[in-house]
Amino acid sequence: MPNTAAERAYAHVKSAILDGSLPGGELLTEGQVAEQIGVSRTPVREAMLRLEAEGMLRLYPKKGAMVVPVTAAEAENVIEARALLENWAARRLFVDAPLQELASQLSQLVEQMRGAQDAGDVGSFSTIDRTFHESIVAAAGNDILTRVYRSLRERQICLSVSVMRVSRERMTVAIAEHTRLVELLCAGDAEGFVGHLDQHMADAAAHLRKAR
């Protein structure tokens, strides 16, 4: 749990952006956020400055802030960068990563995705999907690339929520594809895992483009 008022404000606004509650182009004010979470405007201002530095908000003096939309060009760049990082990570896994431990972790996440689908919780589904892919990259053991990847995913998750709302059946497809990735990991099938992950990324990218 966030400890300070500024951290609470930061977590509140960022969560709303990532789960789609605050879509791109939405305007918000310090007063609105302060009232929602019961703090003064000063920590909200600090949180907004932090989110502006992360590229999620654009501040307008004396007016408030706007949620920065993910442009078509940025979406393409994010998708391409993600694909490169995940492909590298997938290959690296089979060099020295603890595959069975990772497979167990990913299997649990797939079960959580099923639960989110059953509950119709699109925001949680997208968050779990993000954790699944981050876990693959993190297991490759490069902390710098993991941080870069996390920032990319936070931009794309804003798009992912809209895709799931447009096409709920995509949730079922995603679960099946993630399940297959776990199976290939358990089998130690490096080429199969990399190939399936590449195709999974390509399919997800196609849905994102279609949604835009």
From TrEMBL:
GO terms for molecular function: DNA binding; DNA-binding transcription factor activity. Residues 3-70 form the HTH gntR-type domain. This is Transcriptional regulator, GntR family. Keywords: DNA-binding, Transcription, Transcription regulation. It comes from the Bacteria. InterPro entries: GntR_C, TF_FadR/GntR_C, Tscrpt_reg_HTH_GntR, WH-like_DNA-bd_sf, WH_DNA-bd_sf. SUPFAM superfamilies: GntR ligand-binding domain-like, Winged helix' DNA-binding domain.
